[in-house]
Amino acid sequence: MANKNTKKSTGTKKTKNLLEETGDLATQGVLGIADTLEAGKTINELILRRTFLLAEISSKQLELERIDRKLEQALKKNPINELFSRITDELKKFESKEVNDLINGLRPITSLIDITKIITNQTAKNLTGKNNKQAPPVKSKKKTKK
Question: In terms of CB atoms within 10 Å, which of 28, 33, 81, 102 comes out highest?
Answer without folding.
Answer: 102
